[in-house]
Amino acid sequence: MDREDIYKKIVDYVREYKGVTFVEIEQILKDNGIPVKGEAQFGWLDQNILVWGGMSKEMLDIVEHLIRTKQIYCHPASVLIYLADGRIPAMPIAKKDKKYKESHWLPICFNVMPPVMKEVNNIEK
Fold this sequence. Notes:
Elements: H1 3-17, H2 22-31, E1 37-44, E2 49-55, H3 57-68, E3 73-76, H4 79-85, E4 104-105, E5 108-111
Parallel strand pairs: 2-4
Antiparallel strand pairs: 1-2, 3-5
């Protein structure tokens, strides 16, 4: 299966199921013969904020391509969806956008639409 087929398979899955986790993307890649385990990490590593780690360079490249080309978007996620998937990194959860002294995990999920931000100034009181 070539890269374009993998991209399409992941985007179709995210479109159908919404709120897709890294665990689910790993499974899609594994099912299609793509190695998923490795040393690659995704996040704001200069701030010690890890989104996902322990993945192959190929998996990281695929996810980064889909984000960069705006085919999938990162959304904040509850720890519970990763608990349901059976995989939670053993580190504290990042709750603020700041530089941490030690690694913190930021749970995210993927959707095909960007996050919606409400315009606070236009809310009537």
